[in-house]
Amino acid sequence: MKRYSAFAIAREAFRFHSGWERAWRSPTPKAEYDVVIVGAGGHGLATAYYLAKNHGITNVAVLEKGWLGGGNTGRNTTIIRSNYLQDESAAIFELSRSLYEGLSQELNYNIMFSPRGVMMLAQTEHELRAWKRTAHANRLAGIKSEMLTPERIKEIVPIIEINGPRYPVLGGLWQARGGTARHDAVAWGYARGASDRGVDIIQQCEVTGIDQTGGKVTGVQTSKGAIKCKQLCVVVAGSSGILADMAGFRLPIESMSLQALVSEPIKPVLDCVIMANTVHGYMSQSDKGELVIGGGSDGFNNYTQRGSFHHIEETVRALIETFPIISRLKQLRQWGGIVDMTGDRSPIIGKTPLEGMFINCGWGTGGFKSIPGSGWATAEMLADGEPRDLAAPFTMDRFTQGRMIDESVAAAVAH
Ligand SMILES: Cc1cc2nc3c(=O)[nH]c(=O)nc-3n(C[C@H](O)[C@H](O)[C@H](O)COP(=O)(O)OP(=O)(O)OC[C@H]3O[C@@H](n4cnc5c(N)ncnc54)[C@H](O)[C@@H]3O)c2cc1C
Q: Of all atoms in ligand 1, which is nearest to the CA of residue 206?
């Protein structure tokens, strides 16, 4: 693979950009692989990349029913932070955040990581106490986050109304090293890096069945024919229940649509990410000037990738209370993704009842930020055949053992 550099851009400018290679190969699937990963979202692609890079396992295929990054990875609002409450979550999200800091250099691909700071507002006394507790927990876990006064919040975010009529701003939890990245670029960068190391990424290849003999996985049926494998790793977010059904077991997952919208572009007014959990909305400003606004998930299970109209109204109405200046902005577009929600709002990484089949799912509304850490931990699990350190707490049996990792506050609207 040719490296991207200032020199390469100058060289190509002189030859009318005729020398660029395709960023990743489009191979015909082989009959058999050591590892088949289903789902070319960020998590599947990062898993493939770290399998090849950290463990030297390259006889790997990533099968994608649509186009790579076309699921939730290309539909999210790109918030990156690690200020979670529980130690297990803080560990994997902080590894992820720190990997994001050097990811453009690691992948030789500009993922546009922008550590602009993430602010989580407290607009009730209860919320203020909850964020203080999180700040203390973060400090114990070695994660830098701090509480801010309303006056300091107003300095950082001049467009905020801190004396709002229903919910005045009482304080905020601030993670200065959190931020955003370009979501497509994360998928494309990992795809390019994995493909360069020999991983086959096969798009337009839907897995329609899972083959097994004597309780052990032997391969998959796909829209491009049967493919055998020694290990199968399913990383399909909102479609996880469908794949589990193919293998003959059920998952403690509910799938529902989560939506977001963007406003028309305006001049820079907001240079951090801001979340208002009580009124239920959050916002950042894209490089193009659009306000990227996210709200809640549908209150019922569905696979629509669209979202309900009343959510747009509720989200915008909520945010206008705290940011009155957005009231006359026009909405440019809206979309949805299918998120996979567990009961404790923490992910599942681990083995399944079918021997040789592993799963990574349940990141729900907050799995963009965890892509590097999750890929790292899942690759380690596949290489060892067992979930290790980072992944070990997130196995599925925690739901039968009552060993929940409760992140329902950290993962509410605060993606
Ligand atoms: C509106 C919205 C806002 C969000 N905001 C944030 C945020 O700000 N910060 C954050 O951290 N997270 C956020 N998230 C969550 C985040 O996007 C997801 O947790 C994350 O992208 C999941 O990545 P993934 O790789 O597991 O899944 P996906 O990116 O969904 O990839 C799964 C892939 O599997 C493929 N697939 C499914 N079935 C099959 C099959 N049978 N055969 C082959 N391929 C199949 C799909 O086509 C898809 O490409 C948001 C999500 C949404 C929808």
A: 42
First to last CA, the chain: 35
Query: Is the shortest distance between the CB of 43 and ligand 1 below 6 Å?
Result: yes
User: To test the ligand 1 pocket, which listed residue (43, 255, 368, 371) has its Cβ within 8 A of the most ligand atoms?
Assistant: 368
Cβ–Cβ < 8 Å for 111, 104: yes
**How many CA within 13 A on the CB side of residue 27?**
16
Contact 76, 223 (CB under 8 A): no
3 state DSSP class of 39: coil
* CA–CA dist 74, 185 (Å, integer): 9
What value does the CA radius of gyration of the chain take, rounded to a whole number of Å?
A: 21
Of 331, 314, 215, 220, the closest CA to residue 266 belongs to 331
From the CB of 236, is ligand 1 less than 6 Å away? Answer: yes
- How far apart are alpha carbons 89 and 190 in whole angstroms? 23
User: Distances in Å between the alpha carbon of 377 and those of 32, 161, 358, 384, 409?
Assistant: 24, 42, 12, 11, 24
CB neighbourhood size of 163 (10 A): 9
Overall size of the chain counted in residues: 415
Cα 267 to its chain centre, rounded Å, is 28
| 245-278 pLDDT tens trace | 999 999 999 999 999 999 999 999 999 999 998 8
Q: Which of 114, 188, 365 to mutate to test the pocket of ligand 1 (most atoms within 8 A of CB)?
A: 365
**Measured distance CA(382)–CA(48) in Å, rounded:** 10
| Residue with CA nearest ligand 1 atom 18 | 367
pLDDT in tens, 202-212: 999 999 999 99
CA of 183 to the centre of ligand 1 (A): 11
The structure tokens listed for 102 are 């050097």
The best mutation among 62, 72, 282 to test binding of ligand 1, ranked by most ligand atoms within 8 Å of the C-beta, falls on 72
